[in-house]
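As a warm-up, study this chain.
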Amino acid sequence: MKILVTGGCGQLGMCLRRVMPDALFSDIVEAPGTLRLDITELQAVRELVAREGIDTVVNCAGYTNVEKAEEEPELAELLNAKAVENLAVAMKEVDGLLLHVSTDYVFGSKYNTPIPEEAAPAPESAYGRSKLHGEEALARVGCRHVIVRTAWLYSEFGKNFVKTMLQLTAERPGLKVVFDQVGTPTYAGDLADAILRLLKMDAPAGIYHFTNEGVCSWYDFAQLIGRYGGRTCDIRPCHSGEFPSKVKRPAYSVLDKSKIKQSLGLRIPHWTESLQLCINHLNKH
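Now compare it with the structure written out below.
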């Protein structure tokens, strides 16, 4: 198996480097150990696949700024849908496998119990629509593919909620964080492990959901980040309406993980356990 990981400088890409040291990593930026690849250019993708003998792509690349996607829907579509189509076409031509990472945002706000893979998507944001269009492009092209939907991703790398909260709780005496949006924080290191297991076990094509175990609000999440980080900041709950946004964010986005647990015999850590691990890693640097 010759694996290419796109988005190799992002949160998940950096975590995959720890568990897939023999894979090739690409991004649109130049960085040590990273091939420069613009996945919005089909010919560039084809040439790299042929030159390196790639038979498996793990697509971690994408437009992830949920708020800004409302202002740049065309760019979100280019990176989250057209680029996925390009990767799918390149893998179809070599009978390769494309494992694509998607999101809870494809579901919007219509659910209030854990959401299974077969639930009908109903995105309510430009970001969610672009990610759904990427999933649909995979089905349309018809390459061998696996889709892994995740949510509330964080890690030691890049910008994310955990690192932001650690910074803010160190700088401010008090904070307000919304308590009326519920989901499951997901440590990118755990997702990387699950992706490796999917590839090693040659899991059947289709859609899988993966997050850590448990459920919380952003307020609960922030409270524990502050506690694990040794902060004394006074964190208080508030309604989403106190932070007006262009994006309609899902009030409930807990994903049902039964399928991936049964398929892989997987024990998924609770979000509190993985959060402690991530903060321990951050404290060592």
